Amino acid sequence: MVLFSRLASVSRSAPGPAAAVFLAFAALMPAQAAEGIATFADRSRIVAIGGSITEIVYALGEQDRLVARDSTSRYPQAAVELPDVGYMRQLSPEGVLSVNPSGILALHGSGPKEAVDVLKKSSIPFIEVPERYDNQGILEKIQIVGKALGVGAKADALAAEIDAKLKAAEKQTASIKERRRILFVLSMQGGRLLSAGSDTAADGIIKLSGGINAIDGFAGYKQLSDEAVITARPDVILMMNNAGPATADDELFSNPAVASTPAGAARKLIRMDGGYLLGFGPRTADAIHDLAVLLYGGQVTD
Amino acid sequence: MADHSIAGAAGIMATAAEGDRSRRARLVVVLLCVGLTIAVLLSLTSGASDASAIGVMHDWLFGALPGDAALSARDRLIIHDIRLPRIIMGVLIGASLAVSGAVMQGLFRNPLADPGLIGVSAGSSLGAVAVIVLGSTMLAPLTTALGTLALPLAAFCGGLATTLLLYQVATRQGQTSVATMLLAGIALAALAMALTGILIFMADDRQLRDLTFWQLGSLGGATWQKIGSVGPVIVLALAAMPFLARGLNALALGEATAGHLGIPVQRLKYTAIVGVSAAVGASVAVSGGIGFVGIVVPHLLRLLIGPDNRYLLPASALLGAALLLLADAVARTIVAPAELPIGIVTAVAGAPFFLWILLRKRGVIDL
């Protein structure tokens, strides 16, 4: 109480700066950004931001239109040759403008907002592609990208093809009764596992592959306590094999909590390429199939 | 009477070299003005794109250059909406970080002091992290009402609130104890960091990446809008700093002596703390954490022109601004078309340089 009255006296004696700034901030509200259009008028110089967006452009055979990509676009190999405008959530507006794009295709979540605002102001058409971690999300991405590039028919064909593959991949595990519990581990730091809860790409791919996410208590990626690892009872641990310094198998399984789980006892660890596994793009049907085979082996019906 | 005594105090510190040093200091200040001008021009003309700054400038001032009629809207946008606000922000932030460092070192009479000691950095971080993590849930009304200004506003208020709280804790019967402030500052910073830690624990992977990038610092978010809102705070705080110079000079002799010399010590402390908190809070709000400017710049200048704050403060402002602009120019171009966080550039360039100075001048700098 004493503290509060003291604080109040401070604000009485020096009310100036904070209040003035608040007013200044409030007076300068951001202008509403213009909405993107559906098809680029000039489709000759496109910047693709987001790994799955770049993959879709290549899958559509429209890669000649690309002039730059972001740092998450690492597939196919040819895309790596394109100029890199940086991490998709940390774009530099001048960097993007420096490649003279005629259109920008950006996955949802690209930013920061200040950079996107400047890009929209540049009158270069900016199309944002939504992201959802399920089959429909992938098809939607393909259609939006196709339409933006003016190849709607090609996109419909690709979407139909991918749809068939996705459905087939899901059907492969439909008859399996005993579902495996999978713990996705993003990284291991100081003996603690950073793992995927709901509303993550990892959660999406686990479900599509006929598995059960061993974590259901939280959304996003969080560090797990040892007890949480034990109660999760994973049958299999899933990791990416290209993100950051790789955690050695021995390091993972020597963790007492991990060792006590079914996955630890059987030393079941699956490693897959991060972009392939979590991209939710044209290769996802293959990723689902591969993961399902690794999980269930012969039980997968082809 | 008081004026005479203060001049005497400055004289004691500068010893016999007074005349020589102040001439040298004036020369350095003039040279730094020239240096800052060069840094501004260099920043304006360098970047990821080939936009012609000269063409755009000429167009503003005298109309389009002959043969340059097709000056593109893109070039105008790049110069006017990307490079110019960034340069202005860089000058303001570089100046405020360096001057704040110098003032803190004078106030705490410790060459390692920086604005972090009065909790402003930890408080600003807490405000910023709160907006990044809770922006879409608990603080949604704030972020929808203020848009991209919510984060700088929260960071600024967080920094100022922490400092004012610290000031209250360290002040008894109208006297602020610098020692209490130092210790309470550690406690408050730890508390703010713990709260930040809770928020980081709640963050999802995207927010975590945003946090990491924010903590590395960048001038990339500079917009006219932010200059309009944060700029006046920084300019006001900077404008107040030169008035502290004489007081800080006297304070070097000890608080009691400064008091006997006629310096209103308590008012000096309050002005210095609130000014630094406002300047640094506003800077951190826009750019995130940019390290080393506040420590390296005043040190470098003390070696060059001595400890007289009448010259040290303006020279720090000029050198801080110029160095930050150059660091930003490197950050913008070295991995183009992508961009490096500026905090990495200042630390990579600043830390070894600082170490080198310490080694070369070992024995000269009395820590």
Descriptive key words:
heterodimer; A: 302 residues; alpha/beta; Rossmann fold; 2 domains; 4-stranded parallel sheet; 44% helix; disordered N terminus; B: 367 residues; mainly alpha; ABC transporter involved in vitamin B12 uptake, BtuC; two-stranded antiparallel ribbon; 16 helices; 1% strand
Notes on the structure:
The complex is a heterodimer of chains A (302) and B (367). Chain A contains 15 helices and ten strands. Chain A is of the alpha/beta class and 302 residues long. Chain A folds into two domains: 46-170, Rossmann fold; 181-299, Rossmann fold. In chain A, the strands form two sheets. In chain A, strands 5, 6, 7, 8, 9 and 10 form a six-stranded mixed β-sheet that branches. Chain A has a four-stranded parallel β-sheet with strand order 2-1-3-4, covered by helices on one side. In chain A, helix 7 runs antiparallel to helix 8 (152-171) and helix 8 (152-171) runs parallel beside helix 15 (284-296). Chain A starts with a helix and ends in a 6-residue tail after the last helix. Chain B is mostly helical and 367 residues long. Chain B has a single domain (2-360), classed as ABC transporter involved in vitamin B12 uptake, BtuC (Orthogonal Bundle), CATH 1.10.3470.10. Chain B has 16 helices and two strands. Chain B has helices at 2-14, 18-45, 53-62, 73-107, 120-134, 140-146, 150-170, 178-202, 205-216, 224-240, 245-251, 255-260, 265-287, 293-305, 309-333, 342-360, and strands spanning 171-172, 175-176. A two-stranded antiparallel ribbon of chain B has the order 1-2. In chain B, a hairpin with a 2-residue loop joins strand 1 and strand 2 (175-176). Chain B is globular, with a radius of gyration of 22 Å.
